[in-house]
Amino acid sequence: MFERFTDRARAVVRLAKLEADDLGHAVIGTEHLLLAMLLEDGGIARTVLDAAGVTHADVRAAVAGGDDAAALRSIGIDLDAVRASVERTFGKGALDRAEPGERGGFLFRRSKLPTRFNNGAKKSLELSLRVALSLGHKYIGTEHLLLGVLKEERGPGARLLRERGMTYDGAVAAVRAALADAA
Protein backbone atom coordinates (compact mmCIF):
# COMPACT_ATOMS: atom_id res chain seq x y z
CA MET A 1 0.00 0.00 0.00
CA PHE A 2 2.81 2.42 0.82
CA GLU A 3 5.14 1.69 -2.10
CA ARG A 4 4.53 5.11 -3.72
CA PHE A 5 5.08 6.97 -0.44
CA THR A 6 8.22 9.05 -0.04
CA ASP A 7 10.37 8.44 3.03
CA ARG A 8 8.87 11.53 4.66
CA ALA A 9 5.31 10.38 3.93
CA ARG A 10 6.12 6.98 5.46
CA ALA A 11 7.55 8.77 8.49
CA VAL A 12 4.27 10.68 8.81
CA VAL A 13 2.34 7.41 8.92
CA ARG A 14 4.68 6.02 11.62
CA LEU A 15 4.43 9.25 13.62
CA ALA A 16 0.62 9.17 13.30
CA LYS A 17 0.61 5.79 15.04
CA LEU A 18 2.81 7.19 17.81
CA GLU A 19 0.51 10.19 18.20
CA ALA A 20 -2.55 7.93 18.44
CA ASP A 21 -0.77 5.69 20.97
CA ASP A 22 0.35 8.65 23.06
CA LEU A 23 -3.18 10.04 23.14
CA GLY A 24 -4.55 6.62 24.10
CA HIS A 25 -6.59 6.32 20.91
CA ALA A 26 -7.26 2.82 19.60
CA VAL A 27 -7.22 3.77 15.91
CA ILE A 28 -5.32 6.20 13.72
CA GLY A 29 -7.50 9.01 12.37
CA THR A 30 -7.02 12.03 10.14
CA GLU A 31 -6.26 14.10 13.23
CA HIS A 32 -3.24 11.88 13.97
CA LEU A 33 -2.03 12.19 10.38
CA LEU A 34 -2.29 15.97 10.73
CA LEU A 35 -0.37 15.94 14.02
CA ALA A 36 2.32 13.78 12.41
CA MET A 37 2.66 16.17 9.46
CA LEU A 38 3.31 18.94 11.97
CA LEU A 39 6.18 16.90 13.43
CA GLU A 40 7.86 15.89 10.16
CA ASP A 41 10.51 18.53 9.47
CA GLY A 42 11.28 19.42 5.89
CA GLY A 43 8.16 18.15 4.17
CA ILE A 44 6.03 20.30 1.90
CA ALA A 45 3.03 19.71 4.18
CA ARG A 46 4.94 21.13 7.14
CA THR A 47 5.99 24.15 5.06
CA VAL A 48 2.36 24.82 4.06
CA LEU A 49 1.04 24.28 7.60
CA ASP A 50 3.73 26.51 9.13
CA ALA A 51 2.92 29.27 6.62
CA ALA A 52 -0.77 28.98 7.57
CA GLY A 53 0.10 29.31 11.27
CA VAL A 54 -1.08 25.81 12.16
CA THR A 55 0.95 24.48 15.09
CA HIS A 56 1.39 21.05 16.61
CA ALA A 57 0.68 22.35 20.12
CA ASP A 58 -2.59 23.99 19.09
CA VAL A 59 -3.86 20.98 17.13
CA ARG A 60 -2.75 18.55 19.81
CA ALA A 61 -4.59 20.51 22.48
CA ALA A 62 -7.75 20.38 20.36
CA VAL A 63 -7.35 16.65 19.70
CA ALA A 64 -6.53 15.89 23.33
CA GLY A 65 -9.74 17.46 24.53
CA GLY A 66 -9.49 21.23 24.42
CA ASP A 67 -12.60 21.49 22.27
CA ASP A 68 -14.29 18.65 24.13
CA ALA A 69 -13.80 20.35 27.49
CA ALA A 70 -15.82 23.37 26.34
CA ALA A 71 -18.54 21.11 24.95
CA LEU A 72 -18.74 19.19 28.22
CA ARG A 73 -18.93 22.41 30.25
CA SER A 74 -21.85 23.51 28.09
CA ILE A 75 -23.86 20.48 29.26
CA GLY A 76 -22.91 20.83 32.91
CA ILE A 77 -19.93 18.49 33.25
CA ASP A 78 -17.11 20.04 35.26
CA LEU A 79 -13.80 18.44 34.23
CA ASP A 80 -12.05 19.80 37.32
CA ALA A 81 -14.56 17.97 39.52
CA VAL A 82 -14.09 14.79 37.48
CA ARG A 83 -10.29 15.10 37.82
CA ALA A 84 -10.56 15.63 41.58
CA SER A 85 -12.77 12.56 41.93
CA VAL A 86 -10.41 10.38 39.85
CA GLU A 87 -7.39 11.58 41.85
CA ARG A 88 -9.18 10.79 45.14
CA THR A 89 -9.77 7.25 43.88
CA PHE A 90 -6.56 6.53 41.91
CA GLY A 91 -4.02 8.97 43.32
CA LYS A 92 -2.67 12.39 42.47
CA GLY A 93 -1.63 12.80 38.83
CA ALA A 94 -3.60 9.78 37.59
CA LEU A 95 -4.77 11.78 34.56
CA ASP A 96 -1.55 13.68 33.86
CA ARG A 97 -0.29 13.79 30.29
CA ALA A 98 3.15 12.76 29.08
CA GLU A 99 6.00 14.97 30.17
CA PRO A 100 7.74 17.19 27.61
CA GLY A 101 10.55 15.42 25.85
CA GLU A 102 11.41 14.04 22.43
CA ARG A 103 9.45 14.41 19.15
CA GLY A 104 7.37 17.51 19.13
CA GLY A 105 7.63 18.05 22.87
CA PHE A 106 6.09 14.81 24.11
CA LEU A 107 7.52 11.50 25.22
CA PHE A 108 6.04 8.69 23.23
CA ARG A 109 5.24 5.42 24.90
CA ARG A 110 4.93 2.19 22.97
CA SER A 111 1.52 0.75 23.52
CA LYS A 112 -0.28 -2.42 22.80
CA LEU A 113 -3.02 -0.52 20.99
CA PRO A 114 -3.78 -1.91 17.55
CA THR A 115 -2.30 -0.20 14.52
CA ARG A 116 -5.22 0.35 12.24
CA PHE A 117 -6.68 3.29 10.45
CA ASN A 118 -10.25 4.42 10.90
CA ASN A 119 -12.41 4.84 7.79
CA GLY A 120 -11.66 8.56 7.51
CA ALA A 121 -7.89 8.01 7.60
CA LYS A 122 -8.17 5.18 5.06
CA LYS A 123 -10.19 7.45 2.80
CA SER A 124 -7.70 10.32 3.16
CA LEU A 125 -4.81 7.98 2.26
CA GLU A 126 -6.75 6.83 -0.81
CA LEU A 127 -7.50 10.45 -1.70
CA SER A 128 -3.81 11.35 -1.34
CA LEU A 129 -3.07 8.96 -4.21
CA ARG A 130 -5.82 10.52 -6.34
CA VAL A 131 -4.52 14.01 -5.54
CA ALA A 132 -0.96 13.00 -6.44
CA LEU A 133 -2.11 11.58 -9.78
CA SER A 134 -4.21 14.68 -10.50
CA LEU A 135 -1.09 16.82 -9.97
CA GLY A 136 0.87 14.57 -12.32
CA HIS A 137 3.03 13.06 -9.56
CA LYS A 138 4.04 9.41 -9.47
CA TYR A 139 4.82 9.53 -5.74
CA ILE A 140 2.86 10.35 -2.59
CA GLY A 141 4.55 12.99 -0.47
CA THR A 142 3.52 14.80 2.67
CA GLU A 143 1.81 17.44 0.53
CA HIS A 144 -0.49 14.79 -0.93
CA LEU A 145 -1.25 13.48 2.56
CA LEU A 146 -2.21 17.00 3.63
CA LEU A 147 -4.48 17.44 0.62
CA GLY A 148 -5.97 13.99 1.20
CA VAL A 149 -6.82 14.91 4.80
CA LEU A 150 -8.47 18.14 3.63
CA LYS A 151 -10.34 16.38 0.84
CA GLU A 152 -11.81 13.90 3.37
CA GLU A 153 -14.05 16.72 4.60
CA ARG A 154 -15.87 14.77 7.31
CA GLY A 155 -12.71 13.87 9.23
CA PRO A 156 -11.49 15.68 12.32
CA GLY A 157 -8.23 16.58 10.54
CA ALA A 158 -10.08 18.58 7.88
CA ARG A 159 -12.34 20.15 10.51
CA LEU A 160 -9.32 21.25 12.56
CA LEU A 161 -7.71 22.76 9.46
CA ARG A 162 -10.91 24.56 8.39
CA GLU A 163 -11.22 26.00 11.92
CA ARG A 164 -7.73 27.42 11.41
CA GLY A 165 -8.65 29.02 8.09
CA MET A 166 -7.39 26.42 5.62
CA THR A 167 -9.42 25.39 2.60
CA TYR A 168 -8.70 22.66 0.08
CA ASP A 169 -8.31 25.12 -2.82
CA GLY A 170 -6.06 27.38 -0.76
CA ALA A 171 -3.94 24.42 0.29
CA VAL A 172 -3.57 23.25 -3.33
CA ALA A 173 -2.32 26.71 -4.29
CA ALA A 174 0.07 26.76 -1.32
CA VAL A 175 1.35 23.27 -2.18
CA ARG A 176 1.97 24.28 -5.81
CA ALA A 177 3.86 27.37 -4.66
CA ALA A 178 5.93 25.41 -2.13
CA LEU A 179 6.79 22.78 -4.76
CA ALA A 180 7.84 25.52 -7.20
CA ASP A 181 10.03 27.11 -4.50
CA ALA A 182 11.60 23.75 -3.66
CA ALA A 183 12.44 23.03 -7.32
Observed structural traits:
mainly alpha; 10 helices; 183 residues
What does this structure look like?
The chain is mostly helical. Helix content is 64%, strand content 0%. It has helices spanning 7-23, 30-37, 44-51, 56-74, 79-90, 102-105, 119-134, 142-151, 156-163, 168-182. The longest helix is centred in the middle third of the chain and has 19 residues, at 56-74. It is elongated, with a radius of gyration of 17 Å. The two termini are 27 Å apart. Mean pLDDT is 84; it is low at 98-111.
Uncertain regions spanning at least 5 consecutive residues: 98-111
Helical content stands at 55-70%
- Rg from Cα: 17 Å
Mean pLDDT: 84
Q: Determine the oligomeric state from the structure.
A: single chain
Total number of β-strand segments?
0
Helix and strand pattern:
HHHHHHHHHH
Strand content: under 5%
What structural category characterises the helix and strand content? mainly alpha
Report the end-to-end length measured between terminal Cα atoms: 27 Å
Shape: elongated
**Biggest sheet layout:** none
Q: DSSP helix count? A: 10
